[in-house]
Amino acid sequence: MRIEATLSGARPMAGLSRRDAMSALALLFAGPALAATGRHAAAEEVSLAIKGYDPVAYFTDGKPVRGLPEFEYQWDDYRWRFASAAHRDMFKADPVHYAPQFGNYCAMALAKGKIVVANPENWLISDGKLYVFGDPAPKGPALFQQDLAANIDKAIRNRPILPKQ
Fold first, then answer.
1. Shortest CA distance to 65 belongs to which of 139, 120, 138, 119?
2. Residue pLDDT, tens place only, 100-145
């Protein structure tokens, strides 16, 4: 039984030089390995924090603002985006001040022992700290504020249930 292989319109391998045939075989076997490497590299990509919103804008602009890829900074296992270089630099100087207290997760849900990805459009700044919520404003923030100290305490105690990055 004779098997012939062709390379996208090229002549059969039987007509290839030894070097060309070896190169073709190397590509044939290397392809799956290279594809797996690409998937592995993509899996290791650092996650985007708070869906790409600028955490500094909540404090400076008083509203959620989408960050831009050209103003990105990696901190605490996340990629953070900012509306300007100035906001990025402010964050770099004091990331703990600007980052949401429970990362990408709803503060109120965490206080109840649940994991809900936050919608950065629903937010609250209290005592100089940013909290984001899953429920639409004002429900999430208002409920959280009803017993602020207790809810913060519960959310902090429940932090270990959050997934690891």
1. 120
2. 999 999 999 999 999 999 999 999 999 999 999 997 766 889 999 9
- E-strand stretches of the chain: 47-48, 68-75, 78-82, 119-126, 129-133
Domain spans, the chain: 16-43, 46-99, 100-165
The tens digit of pLDDT for each residue in 80-89 reads 999 999 999 9
Q: Residues 6 or more apart from 43 whose CB is under 8 A from it?
A: none
CB atoms within 10 A of CB 155: 23
Give the strand order in the sheet containing 78-82.
47-48, 78-82, 68-75
Cut 0.85: pTM above it:
no
Tokens 């700290």 — which residue? Answer: 129
